[in-house]
């Protein structure tokens, strides 16, 4: 029944991960990981305005993730068409050879997808989301649908934790820290505020602990490549991540959703209305539907 209402149903592993506020850490970690692929990094550097509008970039990424999870199937298909159209129009120019490459090259799309969804999953589990190995595999299998929205063939996308681990093992010899990647990681830890957000300058120092937390959740091998910050004990990183998760998860859903674009908030409101009309108790918001002990069954 919910398959007709939302792109991913409440009983999916995707809901357990994507409704957890550790997603904000996972999202920035994913950008840091993506930057290690030289051509993918050039694609962002040459076609994105993230350094002028870093919050906008995060909000647009969040909008895609939210729509292909909680949006209607039609909304998910629509944003997929828009993303594919944008990617088709973009090119990456190699400064060394002068050759132009497509942004929608399947190799690049796969790298971006795997860096993103693996970051969401690993940060959520390390932060305290209780997922069994089977549920973690199910999450990655469900994310093949998201990969299809950007133009990948689902069967070409890792669908288990073992497959994802093998993928990163194959990719590691191709990864390196380019000047653009190093600049990106520094920027993500200490972003330059765009002109229209300069009034937030007094609270900017709050960002660095968050950016550093995102960096420290990277895999050991990725941090060794970057060498951007001194190493700290893994236990301290895990404790900080759990504390961040608990504090942000305590925010009421309407307050947390202020971080999203207005269109995203409207989409989430519509999702709650559809589920409520179908017989689901959404009085505690979408997060209230993720606990199988409390999740009511839809009216028949």
Automatic annotation (TrEMBL):
Source organism per entry reads Nonomuraea aridisoli
Residues covered by the ER-bound oxygenase mpaB/mpaB'/Rubber oxygenase catalytic domain: 15-241
Q: What is this protein called?
A: DUF2236 domain-containing protein
Pfam families in the cross-refs: MPAB_Lcp_cat
Give GO terms: molecular function aspect only. oxidoreductase activity
List, alphabetically, the InterPro entries matched. Answer: MPAB/Lcp_cat_dom
Q: Which domain of life is it from?
A: Bacteria
């Amino acid at each position: 029944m919910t398959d007709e209402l939302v792109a991913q149903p409440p009983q999916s592993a995707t809901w357990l991960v994507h409704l957890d506020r550790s997603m904000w850490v996972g999202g920035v970690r994913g950008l840091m990981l993506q930057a290690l692929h030289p051509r993918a990094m050039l694609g962002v550097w040459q076609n994105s305005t993230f350094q002028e509008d870093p919050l906008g970039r995060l909000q647009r990424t969040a909008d895609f993730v939210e729509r292909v999870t909680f949006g209607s199937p039609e909304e998910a298909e629509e944003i997929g068409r828009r993303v594919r159209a944008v990617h088709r129009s973009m090119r990456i120019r190699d400064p060394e050879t002068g050759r132009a490459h497509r942004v929608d090259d399947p190799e690049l799309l796969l790298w971006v997808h795997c860096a993103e969804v693996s970051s969401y999953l690993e940060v959520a589990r390390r932060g305290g989301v209780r997922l069994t190995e089977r549920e973690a595999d199910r999450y990655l299998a469900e994310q093949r649908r998201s990969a299809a929205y950007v133009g990948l063939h689902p069967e070409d996308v890792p669908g288990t934790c073992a497959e994802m681990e093998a993928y990163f093992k194959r990719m590691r010899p191709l990864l390196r820290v380019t000047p653009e990647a190093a600049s990106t990681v520094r920027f993500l830890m200490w972003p330059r505020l765009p002109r229209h957000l300069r009034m937030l300058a007094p609270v900017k120092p709050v960002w660095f602990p968050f950016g550093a937390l995102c960096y420290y959740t990277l895999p050991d091998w990725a941090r060794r490549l970057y060498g951007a910050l001194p190493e700290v004990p893994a236990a301290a990183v895990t404790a900080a991540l759990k504390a961040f998760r608990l504090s942000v998860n305590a925010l009421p859903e309407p307050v947390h959703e202020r971080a999203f674009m207005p269109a995203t908030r409207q989409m989430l409101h519509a999702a709650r209305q559809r589920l409520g009309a179908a017989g689901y108790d959404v009085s505690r918001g979408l997060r209230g539907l993720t606990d199988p002990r409390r999740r009511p069954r839809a009216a028949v």
